[in-house]
Amino acid sequence: MSIASPAMRGLLVGLVSLWCSSAAFAVEQRSLFEAAPVEEWKEQEVVFPTYPAEADLQPLSFTTTSSARFLIDLKTLSKGADEVIRYVMVVRTEGGAENVSYEGIRCETAERRIYALGRQGTWVAPRVSEWTRIIDNTFNRYPAVLAKEYFCPPGSILPTQEQILRALRRGGL
Q1: The domain containing residue 125 runs over which residues?
Q2: Burial of 55 (0-12, 13-18, 19+ CB in 10 A)
Q3: Total domain count for the chain?
Q4: Separation between Cα atoms, residue 110 and residue 91, nearest integer Å
Q5: Which of 24, 63, 76, 159 has the fewest other C-beta atoms within 10 Å?
Q6: Nearest-angstrom CA–CA distance, 158 and 173
Q7: What number of H helices and E strands is found in the chain?
Q8: Is the pLDDT of residue 31 over 80?
Q9: How high is the pLDDT of residue 159?
Q10: pLDDT digit string, tens, across residues 63-75
């Protein structure tokens, strides 16, 4: 049989086609198991909310050694397109001092950020406003409670904004 015979050419074309398709399949298979390109996270533009009104404050109930009261402004709670849950927190001490802050929690990285501090009914940008890891200790107890028990419950699908609001009103998920 000569190499130029139609049968031999057909066999050769078939083998080359088979080899090409298997090579393409191998490339396709590899791409299925490669890590998908990770989109870079981008925080949405933050606009400060209206200053909290007493009627919109919901007390948080959790175990702490502090005598302070922790209140969250339900009207300001939002879950952004960037998956950050933002809210206004009011901390009142037994002695009458009050700290007001506009904050955010990012469940994906277990971080929080303070966007603004309340001063005499207006918002002031803090000197440092960056994402920091949430640590569950006495000083940082309320962000840890909000993250674990309301915003980012471990081992479950992240709740919607409405589910978070209902949980805050009734004292837990």
Answers
A1: 54-170
A2: exposed
A3: 2
A4: 21
A5: 63
A6: 11
A7: 3, 7
A8: no
A9: 86
A10: 666 678 899 999 9
